[in-house]
Amino acid sequence: MLGTLAAAYPADVLANPGLPLMRLARPGLLGNFPADGVVALLNTPQAPAWVVDAALRHEDYAVRTALAARADLNPERVAALAQDAGWQIREAVARREVLPEPLVRQLAADDDYDVRKAVAGRPDLPGDVLRTLVTDAHGMVRAAVARRLDLPLDCLITLAADGDADVLATLARRVDLPRNVRAWLAGSDDPAVRAATLQAWTVPPEWLTRAEQDADPDVRAALARRPDTPAGTLVRLAADEAEAVRRAVLERHDLPDEAVLALARAPEADIRLHVASAEGLSGAVLDALLQDTDANVRTVLAVRPDLGPARLTTLAADPHAEVRRAVAYAPTTSPETLAALASDPNAGVRRAAARHPALPAPAQEALRNDPDDGVRLALAGRADLSPALRAALAGDPDPSVRAELEVPSAE
Q1: Looking at the record's lineage, which domain of life comes first (predicted)?
Q2: Model pTM?
Q3: Longest CA pairwise span in the chain (Å)
Q4: Cβ count within 10 A of residue 293
């Protein structure tokens, strides 16, 4: 009965005055409790040590997985869970915010790809372990590595030679690749990769023209979602023969009148209803979204053209690097904010700031000695480099950075 009640009333069960006697009579008491009841007991504030010990021995994977996520576990318990037979538990350990380096290395060599994938996303991953995961046997692990904002340039180039479409599609969304690699991905035989290249923050204008004529509707749908797609193109896409493309156009809030009219004539009733009820977002709504607890929402918010400099400044101080990087890509970000982002601790944010056309010259100069090859690569691709800065980058130790100077910017 107590085991059943624990799921809904964990604090009351722990306060039951008869519980100590029950534990004496049944040393493995919690082993007979349902998993959801033990998890609830674990999640109570300051759960007793005996509950934690019992959870460590519980036969249900869900209990040990919940235990592995607790921030206050001592090192011995964490080490024990890192060797658990259940991959879900080892994966939960791999996602812990603080994890000793020996355990990071141990889990990076785990037999289960989900565990290795969790390790691949850790911000404290040693460089040699990262380079091992770049060549991992499982594509999902390599794709997870390809999402890292701070991925070294040599690792990016290694992944560009990958034969897995998911890995290449993940890579294709990045803009911190050498220009020739991006161009190669944009011409891939796989439509998923071609579509992914259109999800990058910036692409050359000729890619947009080519995408409109692509035979695959997913590529045209990706084009319809881009914030810089020309109005005339949107008008034609709104009347596209593929429903997926028309729905992609529907997602936009900046459509020209001709495109809205085409969608109002769409064969799908729900598309027409949506057009009939659509309206712009007010400042109050934007402010509410600014306080959203989901970093993904704030990231999308950061690239809205109507956000305004004050809200962009707020997002530039966001604790999540993805949000700050979005601010660095936003076309309306002020030079002062860009200068601050150029000294961000995350290399991915600095790479984005290095590409922004409004980045002040002093901030450009400060980035020429950046320890990250990708930042210097982004800087070398700028068309407005001063002669002195161009000369300094011409002597960069990385050949990709030097080669980037030799190609006129197409963006």
Answers
A1: Bacteria
A2: 0.64
A3: 82
A4: 6
